[in-house]
Amino acid sequence: MRILAATALLSLPLLTGQLAAQQVISIKAGLINLIQGDVKLNDEAIAVRNSRFSEMKNGDVIRTLEGRAEILLAPGAFIRLSENSAVRMESNSVVNTRLSLLDGDAMLEVMEMDKAASLEVLIGADKVSVQKPGLYRLDFANSNVKVVDGELAVVSNDVLRKVEEGRMITLTGDRLIAKFDKKSGDEFSRWVSRRSSYIAMANVSAAKDAFTNGYSMNRSGWIFNNWFGYYTYLPFGNGFYSPFGYSFFTPTTIYSFLYPPVMPNWGAGGGTGSSDRGFGMGSTPGGFDRGMGRGGYGGGGGYSGGGAPSGGGMSGGAVSGGERGAGNSSAGGARGGGASSGGRAN
Fold this sequence. Notes:
This protein has three helices and 22 strands. The protein has two domains: 29-179, Jelly Rolls (Sandwich); 187-329, no CATH class. The chain is globular, with a radius of gyration of 20 Å. It has helices at 2-10, 187-212, 251-258, and strands spanning 31-41, 44-45, 61-72, 77-81, 85-92, 96-103, 105-110, 118-123, 126-130, 134-139, 144-149, 151-156, 159-164, 167-170, 177-179, 221-225, 230-234, 240-241, 247-248, 262-266, 272-276, 340-341.
């Protein structure tokens, strides 16, 4: 898995000037970052006009039929919908984000969470609140919630229950909490893992370009990557990982990773040489591969099955099956056909 991720990184075109004009956004939750197949917003087809993304306003309902969707919440947090699922936006504030799961199956991936912010999902009469960064599966049809990583607080009939990593709660009857095999996944969870890896790869070139163009930031946000055709997460600060173990760089940390210092190598005869630390495991703090074994959910068909792209970065098979936004239809590299679409925010 580490080798695949390093190979993908080395094959990335490091952009210059492609993202400089793109504003980092973090004002509202609800930006639809990617759709695949048949997805509707308020029962109307989601059309991409002039490379613009659709944004969910309070009360809007997004519904997947034979399709899937990825929606940006507060910076570093995503909700992804499986087929035949529906979510209503109750509050699109990034400090008080609240949604209702109306049908189907969804996964929350949270890499960063402000201490003053809240992220809640209503499932029937139950209120599910994210307490820590992590990975959460919300299953409306089977009335349960699983904590793959992190911690949730679930309020049912005014009773608060905490659900920790590796446990699930049934949202019926006595709200029983039990263990589950968090390494056991399915087609949807593997798609979520792949999406996380693509977002991480898009972060590398976006952070590189932001550094090259002298972009300054004082908070985390979403930044558009023309090559991938969708937004990626740009953190403010160090040490941010996806629950699948992928590192996310700031404009500063990407520089130290891509251009590590040359270490002097004093020879026995008094001469000097040099050793380039390169892209190896642990070569710099927060390296792309550093987190690959941390919470990676390895093990064949589990949550990381197919998580690391093997098609050689942004070209060829790295982003396949239409898994890209449509923010720039002429952009090279991360192409995947016409099954998915997105666009650029207003």
